[in-house]
């Protein structure tokens, strides 16, 4: 899921920020042991391989760089409206009031300010001991930990694993339907809760199943990587992507959900059909496989009927029902229903609207984790340890969010945020709303590569990008959608993601073979995404 910062197998980094791969664990990717050296032989020195820095390291470097930039970039600010949004054309230079000691103190306290910094309502400066409104990411931080606890408890029951295994088994003799069902299940989980690196635990099931149906290993890898990836790309209420970005943009998680849902409805079938088309081509003519077959792959087809059907117990069914119910309630609680149903942004909220944000959602998922644990009869000791382990597994994306927010505090206190915003305003001024949305998408592509954490990327970029939407006369929700589409599109293929590099390693498919397989789909998705962004910005 969203916001990874931990190094992953093969030097990759988890772009989703959910659960780091543990050695020997369900999400780990291992390599076969090497043969010992011959007696008397001198072992060659190990070759040094370049490892892409983790998101935490990148954000630490960005923090220092932005702090140093504050000495060079002139301070300035916009006039603000009653909602705090900058007013186009009102930028003016101001005199910086910070001494070198003040700036050094900001650098030292940046992680603390990123978590619970308070913004003074008069001076707009942020500090841990000021009085005013919360500027830090404490609400999002706690929500990420609560979500981690809930997801880990659900996995501890075995319900989600067993449900997908049962689905795959019952459709094992209907290949195209099996691919579509698995990819759809992964896509649904991706769009609502950022399900991505969890797919690494299903390769042991998918690879033999696809080989038994006469497909190759690329079909298994594509089903997992692209199925979950397209869901994350079209995140509707995924809190680790859309939620973090919406919070940083100052809008509701439900804003823009109609556009994102429409994208999901179109892009998911396109991706499924792409994989199914390739699978049928390989099934008809194995020589057309892009990755070929390993010894024994072709013989696995004869054992397809020998597989034992996984049993879905009453407990598994109950846990799956609770999982669906919790996420359905989350969607209900964050959607601004009055605006969604009337089409008016200023519509008066209905009395039954909850208008929940991250504090309430954090409480929801903590309560849901306890409820699932009680229903599954995990016991007090196991439930407590599982919740703690889940929060610990998710501390990585939470820290990334905190550090990224700390960077924005440095920019805010040195008064260079509006100066940077003003320089970008000059680039987008005069462009059409549709072109503006596409530019935001394209600008975020290299950022998604440099900052593999989607949560960190969102927290860092949104304070700059969101106000640009106000200048261009475009909804901030379109900027959020453009950002998450860029991040999701990159994560379908870049080698800095554990979902991709770990997936092809588990499927035993060459990364170059995977790129050859996926690049036509990437081109199709790029065109469709730009089309949806233009539509969303102009309608």
Helix/strand layout:
Elements: E1 7-8, E2 12-13, H1 55-69, E3 76-77, E4 92-93, H2 100-116, E5 118-120, E6 126-127, E7 132-134, H3 138-157, H4 159-170, H5 175-193, H6 203-212, H7 217-233, H8 239-249, H9 257-284, H10 314-334, H11 337-342, H12 358-375, H13 380-393, H14 395-413, H15 417-428, H16 433-450, H17 454-472, H18 476-490, H19 498-507, H20 511-538
Antiparallel strand pairs: 1-2, 3-4, 5-6, 5-7
Helix pairs in contact: 1-14, 2-14, 3-12, 3-13, 3-14, 4-5, 4-10, 5-7, 5-9, 6-7, 7-9, 7-18, 7-19, 8-17, 8-18, 9-20, 10-12, 14-17, 15-17, 16-17, 16-18, 16-20, 17-18, 18-20
Can you give keywords for this protein?
539 residues, mainly alpha, three-stranded antiparallel β-sheet, 61% helix, 3% strand, disordered N terminus, DASS-Related_Transporters
Q: What summary fits the major beta sheet?
A: 3 strands, antiparallel
* Strand-residue proportion: under 5%
DSSP strand tally: 7
How many helices?
20
Q: How is the largest sheet built, in terms of strand order? A: 6-5-7
Quote the average pLDDT.
83
Which structural class fits the helix and strand makeup? mainly alpha
Rg over alpha carbons: 24 Å
Can you tell me the overall shape?
globular
Helix content: 55-70%
Q: How widely separated are the two ends? A: 31 Å
The secondary-structure element order is: EEHEEHEEEHHHHHHHHHHHHHHHHHH
Low-confidence stretches: 1-41
């Amino acid at each position: 899921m969203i916001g990874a910062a931990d190094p992953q197998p093969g030097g990759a980094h988890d772009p989703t920020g959910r659960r780091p791969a543990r050695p020997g664990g369900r999400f780990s990717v291992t390599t076969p042991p090497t043969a010992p050296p011959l007696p008397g032989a001198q072992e060659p020195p190990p070759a040094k391989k370049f490892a892409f820095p983790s998101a935490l390291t990148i954000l630490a470097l960005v923090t220092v760089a932005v702090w140093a930039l504050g000495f060079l970039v002139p301070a300035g600010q916009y006039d603000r409206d009653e909602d705090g949004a900058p007013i186009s054309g009102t930028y003016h230079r101001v005199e910086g009031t910070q001494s070198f000691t003040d700036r050094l103190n900001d650098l030292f306290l940046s992680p603390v300010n990123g978590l619970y910094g308070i913004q003074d309502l008069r001076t707009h400066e942020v500090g841990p001991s000021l009085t005013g409104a919360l500027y830090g990411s404490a609400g999002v931080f706690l929500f990420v930990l609560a979500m981690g606890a809930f997801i880990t408890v659900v996995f501890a029951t075995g319900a989600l694993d067993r449900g997908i295994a049962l689905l795959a088994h019952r459709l094992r003799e209907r290949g195209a339907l099996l691919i579509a069902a698995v990819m759809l299940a992964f896509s649904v989980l991706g769009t609502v809760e950022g399900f991505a690196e969890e797919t690494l635990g299903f390769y042991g099931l998918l690879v033999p199943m696809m080989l038994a149906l006469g497909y190759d290993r690329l079909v298994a890898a594509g089903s997992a990587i692209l199925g979950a990836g397209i869901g994350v790309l079209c995140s509707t209420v995924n809190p680790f992507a859309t939620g973090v970005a919406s919070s940083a943009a100052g809008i509701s998680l439900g804003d823009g959900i109609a556009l994102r849902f429409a994208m999901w409805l179109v892009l998911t079938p396109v991706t499924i059909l792409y994989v199914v088309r390739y699978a049928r081509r390989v099934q008809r003519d194995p020589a057309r496989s892009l990755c070929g077959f390993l010894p024994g792959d072709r013989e696995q087809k004869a054992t397809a009927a020998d597989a034992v059907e996984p049993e879905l117990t009453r407990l598994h069914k109950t846990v799956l029902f609770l999982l669906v119910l919790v996420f359905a309630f989350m969607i209900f609680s964050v959607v601004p229903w009055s605006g969604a149903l009337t089409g008016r942004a200023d519509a008066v909220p209905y009395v039954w609207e909850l208008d929940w944000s991250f504090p309430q959602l954090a409480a929801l998922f903590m309560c849901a984790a306890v409820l699932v644990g009680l229903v599954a009869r995990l016991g007090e000791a196991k439930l407590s340890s599982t919740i703690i382990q889940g929060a610990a597994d998710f501390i990585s994306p939470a820290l990334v969010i905190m550090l990224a927010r700390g960077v924005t505090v440095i920019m805010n206190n040195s008064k260079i945020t509006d100066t940077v915003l003003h320089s970008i305003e000059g680039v987008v001024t005069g462009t059409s709303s549709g072109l503006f949305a596409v530019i935001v998408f394209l600008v975020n592509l290299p950022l998604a590569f440099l900052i593999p954490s989607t949560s960190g990327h969102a927290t860092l970029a949104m304070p700059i990008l969101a106000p640009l939407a106000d200048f261009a006369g475009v909804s901030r929700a379109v900027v959020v959608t453009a950002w998450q589409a860029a991040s999701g599109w990159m994560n379908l293929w870049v080698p800095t993601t554990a979902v991709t590099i770990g997936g092809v390693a588990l499927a035993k498919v060459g990364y170059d073979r995977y790129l050859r397989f996926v690049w036509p789909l990437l081109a199709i998705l790029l065109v469709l995404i730009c089309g949806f962004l233009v539509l969303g910005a102009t309608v």
